[in-house]
Design brief:
heterodimer, A: about 475 residues, alpha/beta, Aconitase, domain 3, 2 domains, five-stranded parallel beta sheet, 19 strands, B: about 220 residues, Aconitase, domain 4, seven-stranded mixed beta sheet, 9 helices, globular
Chain lengths: ~475, ~220
């Protein structure tokens, strides 16, 4: 038998039919739904008189629009409220396996609650009308971000129309130095291959540095596969993957668990599997990363400087760098560590899990927010993450430092709710996109790890977190 | 979905790489629960000098005179020339909805982001990939020629320039068929409903642990 990659195996296991031109129907195990990209899909079903194929595949939550201010028990913005209410109505009318509505204790960012509830399991095909669905690939899932027409298509047929992507492996060898995290790994990868580097490919992240990451860290890496252009990012199953699901509410139990684990153990690329493309990075030389521009590929490390657009040979890239610096209000040659920040955001589907909050808290412990930093938002990814953090006392560390401790949601990653930057404000953010206006019209975003964001909040400007960490870390 | 067969349209050039879907349609407009009405807010932050919010009357808003679509010569454009990795970022289908609602029916560029590219086809918006040098040439011709139009013929997979140059393009046969006929994907897939059911039964027997709750119910 031919050697297969993890992606080949997942594809083959779900392939319902394939046309001669390669167009295929793949079966979908889990359909995650949120309020922003689903209303038109449900409306489409209604207009065509169609019913969902398998409502037990659906897990839904409200995350993009919800307020994260604990004092706000209702959604004040009437347009946001209508969208969340529409989700309530649609789930009530059409059904779901689980629904975590606004203010449910287990509500949270869809990509955090999927794995945390066991709704996401290894080997599944997972879709969601959200590009960061690649996150679930951390569990050896074939997880695709899809558009609203596809949401409707999956609801109606339980299948997604796809053509098989090419296989790409990104191997990160060596071990990560202290103060360098999963976020730095993925930003460095994007810096290397570019935001279109993975287009048309399914990326498997492999190598010692990826294996050594926790499941949370692997989620951070797979989450931003889309920022490297790849719809799908994956990590093979190992003991950590399996251990993660032992106590998850929706995971199988008893004999079914054993049977599942036997299958999950096969979800690795065969030793002699062929990849269409391979990229290799050395983790041991990585430093904390900071983006300087308006695309995630515009990234350097904390010891770096804002580049001079004139240094780019490619005229399209030079033009993009010029526009980016104008938008970001930065001068070529400025050391990254001299860039001051107005706000700090710790949260998003990239970095809002317990490990992220612990990494930030380790830097903050006993320190205070710098006076020039107007606001620091810490937004846990789910109600359960929030509860866990409070049990560990992390919220007190943040509150004592002058940070705000919020309720779960997407928050200032995309600023659909009230959490946003004002025009010209600069933010150290643990989210995934530094696009123009992403965190609020005119806002300026620098993407960093949670530890680096916390460090910037304390120093008031970017600073090398390795200098702030306790020696033991 | 509206059919796409042949288009003779005015061309507008958007000369930026990595145009993301946040730029195509900013987040505040995603709160709508409808598919239409996004056209006035297309490229909102580049197109207007003030900050846009849903429901605003855009006819009274101050326009950014430097933005290409605000130049009178590109008024009524139906074909947008774009640069590499157009449509990157968020999966929001509101991006192709906004482009269509504005009046675009086709995009021509060297590369598109995967999810966006896919979303275009679901809505009858044709994204055409051409080699970078060819796109460069079209940009130059378009900028140098007021009233520059292209004729896109899907059956023959060709683009014809005003001077009669014919450029061929590739398109996936399945997607071409869907566009030519204006087919609804769901109806097409449901023709295979029996096959999906058979697959599902066999899959469920092989992987019962993915169907735990349904078995219990």
């Amino acid at each position: 038998m031919n050697a297969k990659t993890l992606y080949d195996k997942l594809w083959d296991a779900h392939l319902v039919r394939q046309e001669p031109d390669g167009t295929a129907l793949i079966y979908i195990d889990r359909h995650l739904i949120h309020e922003v990209t689903s209303p038109q899909a449900f409306e489409g079903l209604r207009l065509a008189g169609r019913k969902p194929w398998r409502t037990a595949s659906v897990v839904a939550t409200a995350d993009h629009n919800v307020p994260t201010d604990p004092g706000e028990s209702e959604i004040r913005d009437p347009v946001s409220r209508e969208q969340v209410v529409t989700l309530d109505q649609n789930i009530r009318a059409f059904g779901a396996l689980r629904y975590f509505p606004f203010r449910d204790p287990r509500q949270g960012i869809v990509h955090v609650i999927g794995p945390e509830s066991g709704a996401t399991l290894p080997g599944m095909t997972v879709v969601c009308g959200d590009s960061h669905t690649s996150t679930h690939g951390a569990f050896a899932c074939l997880a695709h971000g899809i558009g609203t027409s596809e949401v409707e298509h999956v609801l109606a047929t339980q299948c997604l129309i796809q053509k098989k992507a090419k296989n790409m492996r990104v191997r990160v060898d060596g071990s990560l130095p202290p103060g360098v995290y999963a976020k730095d790994v993925i930003l460095a990868i994007i810096g290397r291959i570019g935001t279109a580097g993975g287009t048309g490919h399914a990326i498997e992240f492999a190598g010692e540095a990826i294996r050594s990451l926790s499941m949370e860290g692997r989620m951070t890496v797979c989450n931003m596969a889309i920022e490297a252009g790849a719809r799908v990012g994956m990590v093979a199953v190992d003991d950590k993957t399996i251990d993660y699901f032992r106590d998850k509410p929706l995971a199988p139990k008893g004999e079914l668990w054993e049977q599942a684990v036997d299958y999950w153990r096969t979800l690795v690329s065969d030793a002699d599997a062929r990849f269409d493309r391979e990229v290799v990075l050395d983790a041991s030389i990585l430093k904390p990363q900071v983006t300087w521009g308006t695309s995630p590929e515009m990234v350097t490390d904390i010891e770096g400087r804002v580049p001079d657009p004139a240094a780019f040979a490619d005229p399209v890239k030079r033009d993009a760098a010029e526009r980016a610096l104008a938008y970001m209000g930065l001068e070529p040659g400025t050391p990254i560590r001299e860039i001051k920040v107005d706000q700090v955001f710790i949260g998003s589907c990239t970095n809002s899990r317990i490990e992220d909050l612990r990494a930030a808290a380790a830097v903050v412990r006993g320190r205070k927010k710098a006076p020039n930093v107007k606001r620091v938002l810490v937004v846990p990814g789910s109600g359960l993450v929030k509860e866990q953090a409070e049990e560990e006392g992390l919220h007190r560390i943040f509150l004592e430092a002058g940070f705000e401790w919020r309720d779960p949601g997407c928050s200032m990653c995309l600023a659909m709710n009230a959490d946003r930057l004002e025009p010209g404000e600069r933010c150290a953010s643990t989210s995934n996109r530094n696009f123009e206006g992403r965190q609020g019209a005119g806002g300026r975003t620098h993407l960093v790890s949670p530890a680096m964001a916390a460090a910037a909040a304390i120093a008031g400007h970017f600073v090398d977190v390795r200098e702030l960490l306790p020696a033991a870390v | 979905m509206e059919q796409f067969i042949r288009l003779d349209g005015l061309v507008a050039p958007l000369d930026r790489a990595n145009v993301d879907t946040d730029a195509i349609i900013p987040k505040q407009f995603l709160k709508s629960i409808h598919r239409s009405g996004f056209g006035p807010y297309l490229f909102d932050e580049w197109r207007y000098l003030d900050h846009g919010e849903p429901g605003m009357d855009c006819s009274k808003r101050p326009k950014n005179p430097d933005f290409v679509l605000n130049q009178p010569r590109y008024e009524g454009a139906q074909i947008l020339l774009v640069r590499e990795n157009f449509g990157c970022g968020s999966s929001r289908e509101h991006a192709p909805w906004a482009l269509l609602d504005y009046g675009f029916r086709a995009l021509i560029g060297p590369s598109f982001a995967d999810i966006f590219y896919n979303n275009c086809f679901k809505n009858g918006l044709l994204p055409i990939v051409l080699p970078a040098e060819e796109v460069d040439r079209l940009f130059r011709e378009c900028e140098a020629t007021p009233g520059y139009r292209l004729v896109i013929d899907l059956p023959s997979q060709t683009i014809t320039t005003p001077e009669g140059r014919v450029i061929s393009f590739e398109i996936d046969p399945f997607r071409k068929e869907c566009l030519l006929n204006g087919w609804d994907d769901i109806a097409l897939t449901l023709r295979h409903a029996d096959e999906i059911r058979r697959f599902e039964a066999a899959y469920r027997a092989r992987h019962p642990y993915y169907f735990v709750e349904e078995s219990a119910a």
